[in-house]
Amino acid sequence: MTGVLVTGGTGKTGSALVELLRGNGVPVRVASRNPSAHDPDAIRFDWDAPATHTAALRGMDRVFLVPPVESVDPMPPVGPFLAEAQRLGVRRVVLLGSAIVLPNAPGALELAARVRARPGWVVLRASGFMQNFLSPHPVGERIRRHGEIRTAAGDGRVGWIDARDIAAAASALLADPDIEPGARRDHLLTGPKGLSYQDAAAIINARTGRSVRVVTIGADEQAAHYRAAGMSADFAAALAAVEDSIRAGREDQVSTAVLDLTGRPPRTFAEFVQEHAGEWGHTGASEC
């Protein structure tokens, strides 16, 4: 059997990719920590359980690779996984990387370099997800509950991208193993326009009628909010520090990669908001 192993197969990007690939008749194995009992092609996969890796890879010739979430160093579990994929003859790996590099996290850069070094393997460096503005992400949950965005990013802009456009780009690279990905081994994936949090709030206000304000805070306070949301201290601090980079303008990047790979432009933030307008309903929760 050949096909695509989708790690993180029940996540925002992975689930959309599974749907696209299966819609095109591509065999897919959905890997996740809690596989669905109703999907015969679902398999248990846990980065902390190496014994699950070989079983997930066996028989697959392509892999969509989602590294461990909320990790500042993905290499300890992912390095051996890639070695096993190479040993088993995997022809293509598409890594879901990030355009926004966490500070003091060289492991992510090392992982991307390792993938790029293999013929036919590709890195997708995705910008910030539009889905972050939806619950249960801390940003989206605060909008839903309190009608506000707290940020240390100032007026800095990000090329927010819909996870479904990331999935479409990955599908274009994974659907047919005989189509070479071309000379490029690294693609920056963004939406069509850089937007600040103030821009995003204005679009939500205009499209939904929900009043959303932006509150400026410091990076330390932001890290505390992320810890309160359940993130580890190291990851919370790194994620909050990213907002300093956004404020400085270093994440204001826009590319044509989605159009180049899929033949259609990425969704705008206004389109995304219109589609999800009902998900920012007021809960009546008190301010905190």
Largest beta-sheet details: 7 strands, parallel
Oligomer: single chain
Number of strands: 9
Cα distance spanning the termini: 54 Å
Residue share in helix: 25-40%
Strand content: 5-15%
Query: Looking at the structure, what is the overall shape?
Result: globular
Low-confidence stretches: 283-288
Structural class: alpha/beta
| Total helical elements | 11
Quick check: average pLDDT? 93
Strand order within the widest sheet?
Answer: 3-2-1-4-5-6-8
H/E element sequence: EHEEHEHEHEHEHEHEHHHH
Radius of gyration: 19 Å
Pfam families: NAD_binding_10
Domain NAD(P)-binding: 8-177
InterPro entries: Ergot_Alk_Oxidoreductase (IPR051604), NAD(P)-bd_dom (IPR016040)
Protein name: NAD(P)H-binding protein
Defining traits:
two-stranded parallel ribbon; disordered C terminus; 40% helix; 9 strands; 288 residues
Structure, explained:
- By secondary structure, this protein is of the alpha/beta class.
- It has helices spanning 12-23, 51-57, 75-87, 106-116, 138-146, 163-174, 197-208, 219-228, 233-247, 257-262, 269-275, and strands at 4-6, 28-32, 42-44, 62-65, 92-98, 122-126, 148-151, 186-189, 213-216.
- Helix 4 (106-116) links the parallel strand 5 (92-98) and strand 6.
- The longest helix is centred in the C-terminal third of the chain and has 15 residues, at 233-247.
- It starts with a strand and ends in a 13-residue tail after the last helix.
- Mean pLDDT is 93; it is low at 283-288.
- It comes from Streptomyces rhizosphaericus.
- Residues 8-177 form the NAD(P)-binding domain.
- This is NAD(P)H-binding protein.
- InterPro entries: Ergot_Alk_Oxidoreductase (IPR051604), NAD(P)-bd_dom (IPR016040).
